[in-house]
Amino acid sequence: MVDVSRVQKELTECNRDSDISGVSIALHDGGSSITHLTGTIAGPRDSPYEGGTFRIDIRLPGGYPFEPPKMQFITKVWHPNISSQNGAICLDILKDQWSPALTLKTALLSLQALLSAPAPDDPQDAVVAQQYLRDKATFVSTARYWTEAFAKSDSTGMEEKVQKLVEMGFPEDMVRSTLLSVNGDENMALEKLCSG
Amino acid sequence: MGYDGAPSPASAAARDAKKKRGNRSSAKLKQCKLDARREQWLSQVKDGKEATAKPLPAGAGSGAGSNAGSPILASPHPPLPRRRADARSRGGVLEDDKEDAGATGQEVGGSDLDSPMHSPCSDNSRGGGCAQSKRCSSNGGGPSLSSVSSLWSSSRSVSDAEDDDTGSGPEEENGVLDDWEAVADALSVDDNSHCRQSLGTTMPPAATSESAPLANTSKRTEPIRSNARAWTPDDTFRPQSLPSISKQSSFPARIGNCWGMGMSAAHQSILSMPLSCPICYEDLDPTDSSFLPCPCGFHLCLFCHKRILEADARCPGCRKLYNAGSAGEGAPAPVRLSRSCSMGPRH
């Protein structure tokens, strides 16, 4: 059984100063389940993720807070410790180093810190980690591009491109997945969509 | 029988005063003063056999006298009959012939019950009560004795009040107590008159001898009522043998809080940092806030601690394993820091 009262207090506590902390939590898609939440973190300054807003899927196991919450990036991120495929996170406090004294807020803040301080020696995404180690400049530009493309939902990014391609007659889900696969490049996505 | 035998107006006045005093003191006895002072006086009786041999029976005689006089003398003091009735109702039936004596002894039990809640000087905090007990016992006994007795008497007053009422027989306490009171009284009279005599007057004039016990009475009884002290350091009649110990107001709080009466509730909440369990966010009760299973000082409630012990048994604060010896049993031996030892029977 999830400790409902604790989670509710955590949500209140976390959202009280979300303007300052840059992290907030809400029920997933406005749903009613307190065990399925969505966290958002602001991309840390002086990092390739600056300006982006990253959404994180949070599922609370029955043993929470004695078991760690399951967290996964919904927003695509280019980061050595975050899977570029499915958003899985490699962070010790979400695994064996979890402590019941930690909270969803502190976990999200830890993710924020992870964005600004990648740990390529313990990678989740080997490709990104290799790029980070071998070609930092490319890594930074790619990460910045992904931030622009996926983490800025209200800028002229994803939604507009999706809208355009959908108007061309492609199914929306295919447009989205194609756009994601080409890192948001509209022309490449169109090319891919046309080629089948 | 020295003074009873002498038919001087002085001794009559002394006895009269003693009657009064016996009555009044029965109402004013605080549980905290008993042990140290009693022991002190009893030992003094043994030491000064010569000096006390005569006054002891005198005191007993005056006690007997006050038995008869007590109902009448008690009437001018409205609080006394009420309290005594109270004590009697708690203690059950009490025969008339030992009423006064019984009331003294009963009052021990009665004040045990009453004092934490009703006595005017301990109504503010239990810390105050403890300090008060310390104060009087520091006058009465040596350092070790006083600390022990203050602990004993205070803890008994707050936790074992009910047991005490029935447990220790009133008569048993009573006899010793009465003697002790009488001895204390007689001694001071004796000393005083000796002083007078040595100064040159062959027979103590009525005025001086009368004033001595009266002064003694007022000195003894009034302070006891107000703040339960026995002798002040500048007391004229303070025995020379009493050690002079400065008041250590912080001492009973430190020692006492191990027994749960050293701190007031307000004090507790200031000192024990978290008000709610950081794990389940429920309020910590005093037991929880004094519960420190890990040397790192991480507070948590007993429920969450048990839950953690059932899982990986690591402290949420420092991630170290809880003490292997205690964690294995599932019954941890909490490390108690003195500042947060605040388990109180009041709660």
UniProtKB/TrEMBL annotation, chain A:
Keyword Transferase: yes
GO MF annotations, alphabetized: ATP binding; ubiquitin conjugating enzyme activity
Signal peptide, first to last residue: none
UniProt cross-references to Pfam families, sorted A to Z: UBA, UQ_con
Domain UBC core: 2-152
EC class name: transferase
Family: Belongs to the ubiquitin-conjugating enzyme family.
Name used for this protein in its record: E2 ubiquitin-conjugating enzyme
TrEMBL record, chain B:
Ranges where the RING-type domain occurs: 277-319
Natural source organism: Aegilops tauschii subsp. strangulata (Goatgrass)
Biased composition (Basic and acidic residues): 32-52, 83-95
InterPro entries noted in UniProt: Mot2 (IPR039780), NOT4_mRING-HC-C4C4 (IPR039515), Znf_RING (IPR001841), Znf_RING/FYVE/PHD (IPR013083)
Annotated GO biological process: protein ubiquitination
Protein's name according to its UniProt entry: RING-type domain-containing protein
Bias type Low complexity, positions: 1-14, 144-158
Compositionally biased intervals (Acidic residues): 160-177
PANTHER family (UniProt xref): CCR4-NOT TRANSCRIPTION COMPLEX RELATED, CCR4-NOT TRANSCRIPTION COMPLEX SUBUNIT 4
Annotated spans, Disordered: 1-177, 193-248, 326-347
Keywords on record: Metal-binding, Zinc, Zinc-finger
An MF annotation (GO) of this entry: ubiquitin-protein transferase activity
